[in-house]
Amino acid sequence: MWCIEEGFSSTGVGRAAREDGLALARERLRRLFGFEEPTIELLSSQTEERSDCFVERLRFRLDGGGEVRGVLTRPLAAEAPLPAILYAHAHGGRYDVGADELLDGQTYLLSPPLGPVFARAGYVTLMIDMPTFGERSGQREWPLSKALLWYGKSLIGEMLCDQAAALTYLGSRLDVDPGRIGAFGMSMGATLSYWLAAVDQRIAATAHLCCYADFATLVETGAHDRHGIYLTVPGLLAETSTGAIAGLVAPRPQLICVGDADDLTPPLAVDRAFAQTEAAYRRARAGEALTLLRVPGAGHQETEEMRKAVLEFFAEAL
Description:
This protein has eleven helices and nine strands. The protein has 318 residues and is α/β, with parallel strands linked by helices. Helix 10 (267-283) links the parallel strand 8 (254-259) and strand 9. The longest helix is centred in the first third of the chain and has 22 residues, at 12-33.
């Protein structure tokens, strides 16, 4: 299992060795994910003005992935270039929702939905349909996951590739500052947000809700079966861990939010993961950039505490 050594010199040579180690870890993780960003082309855009934001309904062509729907919100009045958020949608078994989550929310998210909320706070926010969701739900999760696994790939790896392409588009917009793009998500979207930040340093900061736990601990306790097959990456635990992946986001700001009563993030699994992530931030001399918010009694749901923390986090980080 790869890791970055706990002790390292503060000299230029020591820093260079550490950076080389981080680059190697990211490259090995990319190979595990089958990470190859497809080219993205904007096919069409339709804009509507609402009382609290502009909404753009986008259609893209992804190389090898066909047409993909995107939904974008942006402020009514703000001076460009603006900070932006790449928002990955949740799973929840709602294959029909996909990118509609940006405007309509999900059952375990608070109201109002975050697309308009982020726009009022001054962000351009983009969400696209992940494979098997929204307009891409003609593909089904289990058959597609199994086919990819037989070829040594994974569905979440395909999702990460598509998110990277969406990030490229977002950073190319004239109204977006490419140096101030954050990643955000809940549940499946949480994993996508910090895994993408781990391998793609264009993400300036990441905040994620309700999907951060040590996978090996979940396997030990049988809790791993609560996750969908989309999350299965061949050989992942032989190489690394949740805490180490999140640690690759360092020294960039990261907010981790979990509920202590969430079956997907049991306290022991969170503790073990956070010990590794916290150690990575210490090695990067960026301990203040990492925050863990644990909400007592909260299940697999966004809470008022989480939303407040996310808005404050991005206001400072971006």
